[in-house]
């Protein structure tokens, strides 16, 4: 399986990605997690992206495309993958399409988690209390939502018109949403 999971900040992408990836025996590849690991380890890449992430802006495409391609080229992704948080704008879609074409591959489905904007903010502020992520504060959340609406949400139309978009209601218990995702993917195949 080659899958993408999309959704606004707080929609549950990272939360659901692990369970879905385990189910299909593919790696979950999260650009956000890769950037956060680099920040934590104090790498050059981490230094480059920290202020951008703290502001809730998108990391430059050339940096993001490169880490994704490097990760997709690793052996464990050769039989499939679940991309979480990538692509996030049309340029990244084109970069991913070019990679897939070059390798004779295609995406099986794009999961879109739908959640009401007010609930998204509540979830992120709750995470701020528990995990203290530096981008989970009201100002940054507002910007992340804006960036999502202007740059990422339009991608849903692109994947809808390709016939691979699977919309899933992301409101409810985490296990309940996960089951909805499996049901939606099963009924698509
Ligand atoms: P991400 O790491 O993708 O952050 P996110 O959008 O908040 O999603 P995340 O996966 O962490 O949260 P989730 O919705 O699962 O991106 C962070 C930053 O990295 C971006 O702002 C950008 O700067 C940079 N970046 C990443 N990818 C990039 C790219 N491709 N290009 C450029 N820049 C990029 O969960 C949120 C909270 O909701 C959690 O606390 C969770 O427990 C809770 N939750 C989830 N599901 C729930 C449910 N059903 N019920 C109750 N709570 C739930």
TrEMBL record:
It is found in: Cytoplasm. Residues 30-59 are annotated as: NMP. AMP binds at residues 31, 36, 57-59, 85-88, 92, 133, 144. GO terms for biological process: AMP salvage. The keyword NADP does not apply. Its main location: cytoplasm. GO terms for molecular function: AMP kinase activity; ATP binding. It catalyses: AMP + ATP = 2 ADP. It comes from the Bacteria. Its EC number is 2.7.4.3. The keyword GTP-binding does not apply. GO terms for cellular component: cytoplasm. Keywords: ATP-binding, Cytoplasm, Kinase, Nucleotide biosynthesis, Nucleotide-binding, Transferase. Monomer. Catalyzes the reversible transfer of the terminal phosphate group between ATP and AMP. Plays an important role in cellular energy homeostasis and in adenine nucleotide metabolism. Consists of three domains, a large central CORE domain and two small peripheral domains, NMPbind and LID, which undergo movements during catalysis. The LID domain closes over the site of phosphoryl transfer upon ATP binding. Assembling and dissambling the active center during each catalytic cycle provides an effective means to prevent ATP hydrolysis. This is Adenylate kinase. The gene is adk.
